[in-house]
Fold:
Amino acid sequence: MQISDELFTLSEKLVLELKQLYRSCGYLPYRMSKFEEYDLYAGYKDFLVSDTVLTFTDTNGKLMALKPDVTLSIINSHKDLPEDVQKVFYNENVYRSDTSAGVFREILQTGLECFGNITRRDIVEVIFLAVRSLQAVSENCVLALSDLSLIEEVLVNEDLSLKTKREIFEAFTQRNRSAIREIAGSCALSDLKRDYLLALLETHGPLKDTLPVLKEIFAEIEVRGSEPFLRTLSLLSEDPLSEKLRIDFSVTGDIHYYNGIIFKGYVDGIPASILSGGQYDRLMQRLGKRSRAIGFAVYTGQIEDAGRKATGETDSWLNIALPKGRLGEKVYALLAASGYECPEVLEDSRKLIFENPERKVRYFWVKPSDVAVYVERGAADIGIVGKDILLEQEAKVYELLDLKTGICKLAVAAPKAYEEDPERAVKVATKFPNAARKYYRSLGKDIDVIKLNGSIEIAPLLELSDVIVDIVETGRTLKENGLEVIETIAPVSARLIANPAAYAFRSGTIDRLTADLARKVK
Structure:
């Protein structure tokens, strides 16, 4: 009996196609319970996408969890057979917190896991299955690859704290060159290793173009792990599907769980990665397993939300979100001077969207605090936003360039002669509650956050708070209210940011604009 395609949603049709694909390559279906004992996840929260787990107590008094992850459940339930290769696929819902909305969501995933005595051929097969999974959504797709060991190995013999190593990986994730330079300078990393890290970050693009560049880089500096990676890339390059592969070292993961090759998949028109995976031998070791492992998940639930966008034509326009006000006008002048002009932008009108068809550039004015949201959600490809807003919102965007304008700092200020009481939590008044919590957490201190929207300086004067966390430019307002800076959290200036999915398809255009702006900034 034939069933019409019209009876299926996009995600349902995709799941059927993926199941057939994985079965054809020898993967066996795996079905699991919705619930797991909470203890399974308690010790591995760093591995989970969301570290908040939805729990309940069953009728026997045992603490249970709605599963936030599939990989842990599969590995935990299978025997460790390091001499064999086990291949399974799944189609399961996971339950994760959405921090931006403050709710839990049910997320449909379809994916596979390959574990045991896996070889380079198994790794290549999994990577190409990831590509074919993306193609089931749209031919206009790319799989971005990196190798964590190539970053980690050059840091092994350095006297670096775990915090510093994580900051380096975070800088890679954000594609933040200036942060890598700053970290290298502060921890006395050698010029050779600093330049190597920057070279890795700047090496991105189609496999056929980047493979020769990587060979040149590894001829200059010896890095353990480079030879296996190059051999895998050479094997991948022999297949026509390799045209969908890109090298991108901003693809990272937690080094306590992942090792070797890691990847993310993008489809043009969908503003975030819809596939992620990689090698996770270290997780296997932490679970007491001797097997090696690699796998990936396709976020099939996202396909339905994307609708027709996933199958549409590539939009050749570059969409730029500008912050309303003096900063936006100043940055637009830099963009116009770099050849990305759109004269209507500065006209006195109520219009918010402006286009230059000749340059294929589209500008729109938005509230400064909303720029990162527009970029992260894919409404804009790139945008200009203050570092303070990035620290507060922790948006998943690339930070491509420090524009050296709007310079100030995010700081802790207090009344003169203030002394902290170690017997109680510090009361902090601020417009930046997330940034304040993160800063004090790094010091191992608990705080009582008081969220305010204005006139922050009077909070300590009225004994509403002990200190404030706020933007400081000249310090004049603080001085006039009897306050002084006691700690600097971070320097702040305007940053050029990009949506990672947009960058995957328009990196050439975005890189040219970034380079043009960099010349003007200097």
In short: The chain has 19 helices and 23 strands. The radius of gyration is 25 Å. The chain has a mean pLDDT of 89.
